[in-house]
Structure formats: structure tokens, C-alpha cells
């Protein structure tokens, strides 16, 4: 009888925080600067330089912990994690092992079997390392220390996930939570959110964990899903052949869809942790903690419920709009200006989502002004332009953020409401299509749509469809 296996997965998610300066110095955290221009003696590990903790890092860590249902350690400390690597200028990383700032939380996810809580073991603060750039042409490796000292939180889950689908659901919920808090932009392509996957397999029914591996170099949700499926298959194949899974760190190559061993997996003892002597403990007062809790913004579940009760939107529309903070903000600002929530929702869920998909972008790329979308909605309601023309104008707003009124005037897109011009166009179409008129008179009333379409074509799409329909029906019935 063939054995069946269960996958056991836990994640270590690193999130770069959205502070303007680094965790222990005043250097900029801006992404994309020239190599080694955002550095100083502290973040490059010069002897004698002393770290000073950025208060905003602590507040971001607390807000994420509170939103993730964690307990907060109001007395926490920093520790030194000692290891040598060229992108680690001090030969140690300042992190938190013994007393992390957050502990024992959970993130709820939706599964086919219902809601499932993915437990969070801890969230701790630490500094990021630099970045190695491997130059294949020159056959050398260069190091950029701009990222060294950028503040991170590491969110460590319990091994509660059992499939790639659950992992992606957890990461999407976590990313949305952090984005709503404003704690990070969570751009995987820029490295501001990175996930290491700890995975093992065991026979179905077994209570004992198998030997786990850790996979790194995962910079998209699709890569994470492929890496999980690939590593699961690799481990099962080893066990089926009677071989052992080795506890190690592996690097996933998404182009080859293959992982390879980097190094044996370290334990805490290998890093020789000890309390950092240059940093005092962090003491969080009750007042400070409550001020952070009071400042927590409305998160997605609450926003969804409000959209349904306040704006009368469906659950589906509310979910789509709130799955991106950028889209939710766009919806609310536009609705405030024009007071037409359903019509604004339709533009964002329909045309905006379609154009984003065509460009291979997500809702975080939306950049046009809510003022212009509100004006477009008003133009349609006022009968200045029809729906088909409005789609053309929306595309121009989406791509160039044009003023819709000016665009309509410049391109002569305003609707023709001149009754005499419309009547002439209707008469011309009826005269040019006698067979279709006969079909209508014999009871085939569906041809009305064709005749109206011919008038719209003759008017270059600028006629009022409702008025054309009314005139056409009146003349045919006469």
C-alpha cells in the first residue's frame, strides 16, 4: 500500500519597515540609491561607533503585533547574533532572541474547510544586512551596504500550514495587514517583504515532525508556491528511496524550478547569542502601548463591513475594493467627492482592474487623481458623455491622469442631444435598412438593437443611446 504524506510548513517573514531612517543610525532607507551612498560608521560597523534605537521602529513593531493578536513584551532586549558574511559589516547582527517584542499571536485565513488560525510564535526587531552583487562578467562579488541597518521585523509562525495554498493565503493576509498599518509597502520585488519557508513531510496520521529544510531566495508568491511543491516532492522521493532528509538551508532557483543546498541549517547555539552591551533594554510604558493601540487604523475586515453598511455595496465588491489599501483609499476619496459609491466601485472593480491586469500590475500601481475619477462619474450622470465614451476617457485618466472635461472638449466626445440631428440620423438608418424594418414589423423586435447601433455608428458614438432608442421605437411603431 502506497504511503500518503502530509506537508508541514512554518514561515519566517522578514518585513522592511517604512521608517525614513535606519534602525540604529540616521542614514536614509530610500530604495534604489547608488551603492554605498546611504552609509555611516554605525551601519558599516566601524569600531567605536554606537547604535541608537529608532523609536518609530518600536511603534511599527507594536502596531503589527497588536493587529496580529500578539501579546507585547513591555520589557524587551536586543541580542547579538554572531556570524561572518561579507554583507554583514560588524560580523554580528543586532536582533532579539531571548525577549522579542511580540509573542503568541495569530492570523486568520480562509480555507475550503472554513477559517483557520495560523499561530504566530513571535515577532522580533532586527537590522537588515547589506547586499552582495555577483558580477559574472568580472567574476567577482561586490557589496552594497545601503541596506545594512534598514529596520526589519521578523514574523515567525508556528508550523501550522499544510499546503502552498494556505501559505499564500497567510502571506496575502499578512501583507495586507502590514500595508493597512503603513508599516511597510511589502514589495516583494524590492525585497521589502521576504519569506523563508521551513518545510518537512511526514506520513499522514503521524504526530512526529519530519526533518525540515529552509528555503530562501523566494521573491514572489508564485515562486513560493512552486518552491513548496518542488521541495515536498524532493523530500517524499528521498523517503520513498529509504534515504534521510538532511536539515539544511536550500536556495530556490525559480528559473530552473529546482532547489540546491547552501549550507547545513544552524541552530541558535551556532550564533553564540548574547545581550547587546551597547543597547539598553526597551521599556514600553502602559501609556505608550495604549497610544499605539488607539492609533491603529481601520483594517480590512472592519472596512469591508463598513462598505456594506454605509455604502450598500455587496460583500464581493467590498472584498475586491479592500484587498488593496491603495484601491480602498482611491474608492473612499472619490466617493467623498461625487457621492456615487456604487458607480465609483464599478469603475475600479471593472475598468481599473482590467487595465491593471493588461499591464501586469497590481492595485498599488494606481496613481491617478480621485478628483478626475469623480469628475468622470459626474459627466456620465449629467448626460455629457455616454458609457462607451466614458470608457475611452477613463483609459486616458488611468494612463495620463487627464482632466476628463478638458479631454472630452479637446477630442469632441460630448454627446449629441440635438433632437433634429438625431431624428435625421434615425430617418437615414431606417431608409437604408428597409428589410430590417420589415423584420421588425413582422414581430422580430430584436432587430431594434441593430438599428440603434447603426445610428450610434453614424453619430460616431456621441449620441445618447436612450434617446436614440426612444426615437427609433417611436418611428417604427408609427
From TrEMBL:
GO biological process, one term: translation
Alphabetical keyword list: ATP-binding, Ligase, Nucleotide-binding, Protein biosynthesis, Transferase
Domain of life of the organism encoding this protein: Bacteria
InterPro entries the record matches: Asn/Gln-tRNA_amidoTrfase_suB/E (IPR017959), Asn/Gln-tRNA_Trfase_suB/E_cat (IPR006075), Asn/Gln_amidotransferase (IPR018027), Asn/Gln_tRNA_amidoTrase-B-like (IPR003789), GatB (IPR004413), GatB_C_1 (IPR042114), GatB_Yqey_C_2 (IPR023168), Gln-tRNA_amidoTrfase_suB_CS (IPR017958)
One example GO MF annotation: asparaginyl-tRNA synthase (glutamine-hydrolyzing) activity
HAMAP family (UniProt xref): GatB
Family affiliation: Belongs to the GatB/GatE family. GatB subfamily.
Role: Allows the formation of correctly charged Asn-tRNA(Asn) or Gln-tRNA(Gln) through the transamidation of misacylated Asp-tRNA(Asn) or Glu-tRNA(Gln) in organisms which lack either or both of asparaginyl-tRNA or glutaminyl-tRNA synthetases. The reaction takes place in the presence of glutamine and ATP through an activated phospho-Asp-tRNA(Asn) or phospho-Glu-tRNA(Gln).
Protein name, per record: Aspartyl/glutamyl-tRNA(Asn/Gln) amidotransferase subunit B
Organism: Clostridium fessum
Phylogenetic lineage: Bacteria, Bacillati, Bacillota, Clostridia, Eubacteriales
Amino acid at each position: 500500500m502506497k504511503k500518503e504524506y502530509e506537508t508541514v510548513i512554518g514561515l519566517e517573514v522578514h518585513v522592511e519597515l517604512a521608517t525614513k531612517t535606519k534602525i540604529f543610525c540616521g542614514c536614509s532607507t530610500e530604495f534604489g540609491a547608488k551603492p554605498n551612498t546611504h552609509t555611516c560608521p554605525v551601519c558599516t560597523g566601524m569600531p567605536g561607533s554606537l547604535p541608537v534605537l529608532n523609536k518609530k521602529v518600536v511603534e511599527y513593531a507594536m502596531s503589527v503585533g497588536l493587529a496580529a493578536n500578539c501579546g507585547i513584551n513591555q520589557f524587551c532586549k536586543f541580542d547579538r547574533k554572531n556570524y561572518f558574511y561579507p554583507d554583514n559589516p560588524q560580523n554580528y547582527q543586532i536582533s532579539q532572541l531571548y525577549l522579542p517584542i511580540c509573542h503568541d499571536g495569530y492570523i486568520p485565513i480562509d480555507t475550503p474547510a472554513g477559517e483557520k488560525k495560523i499561530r504566530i510564535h513571535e515577532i522580533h526587531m532586527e537590522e537588515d544586512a547589506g547586499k552582495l552583487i555577483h558580477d559574472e562578467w568580472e567574476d567577482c562579488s561586490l557589496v552594497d551596504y545601503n541596506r545594512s541597518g534598514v529596520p526589519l521585523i521578523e514574523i515567525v509562525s508556528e508550523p501550522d500550514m499544510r499546503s502552498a495554498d494556505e501559505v499564500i493565503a497567510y502571506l496575502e493576509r499578512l501583507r495586507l495587514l502590514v500595508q493597512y498599518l503603513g508599516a511597510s509597502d511589502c514589495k516583494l520585488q524590492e525585497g521589502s517583504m521576504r519569506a523563508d519557508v521551513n518545510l518537512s513531510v511526514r506520513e499522514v496520521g503521524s504526530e512526529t515532525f519530519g526533518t525540515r529544510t529552509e528555503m530562501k531566495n523566494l521573491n514572489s508568491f508564485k515562486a513560493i508556491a512552486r518552491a513548496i511543491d518542488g521541495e515536498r516532492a524532493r523530500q517524499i522521493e528521498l523517503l520513498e528511496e529509504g534515504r534521510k532528509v538532511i536539515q539544511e538551508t536550500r536556495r530556490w532557483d525559480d528559473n530552473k524550478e529546482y532547489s540546491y543546498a547552501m549550507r547545513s541549517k544552524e541552530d541558535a547555539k551556532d550564533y553564540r547569542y548574547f545581550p547587546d552591551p551597547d543597547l539598553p533594554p526597551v521599556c514600553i510604558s502602559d501609556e505608550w502601548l495604549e497610544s499605539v493601540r488607539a492609533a491603529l487604523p481601520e483594517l480590512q475586515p472592519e472596512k469591508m463591513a463598513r462598505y456594506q453598511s454605509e455604502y450598500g455595496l455587496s460583500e464581493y465588491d467590498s472584498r475586491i475594493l479592500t484587498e488593496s489599501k491603495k484601491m480602498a483609499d482611491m474608492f473612499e476619496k472619490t466617493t467623498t467627492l461625487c457621492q456615487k459609491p456604487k458607480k465609483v466601485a464599478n469603475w475600479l472593480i471593472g475598468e481599473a482592474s482590467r487595465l491593471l491586469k493588461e499591464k501586469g500590475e497590481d492595485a498599488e500601481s494606481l496613481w491617478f487623481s480621485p478628483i478626475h475619477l469623480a469628475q468622470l462619474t459626474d459627466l456620465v450622470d449629467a448626460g455629457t458623455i455616454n458609457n462607451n465614451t466614458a470608457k475611452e476617457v477613463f483609459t486616458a485618466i488611468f494612463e495620463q491622469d487627464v482632466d476628463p472635461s478638458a479631454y472630452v472638449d479637446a477630442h469632441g466626445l460630448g454627446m449629441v442631444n440635438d433632437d433634429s440631428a438625431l431624428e435625421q440620423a434615425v430617418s437615414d438608418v431606417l431608409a437604408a435598412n428597409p428589410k430590417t424594418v420589415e423584420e421588425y414589423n413582422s414581430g422580430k423586435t430584436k432587430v431594434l438593437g441593430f438599428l440603434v447601433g447603426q445610428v450610434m455608428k453614424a453619430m460616431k458614438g456621441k449620441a445618447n443611446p436612450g434617446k436614440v432608442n426612444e426615437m427609433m421605437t417611436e418611428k417604427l411603431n408609427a
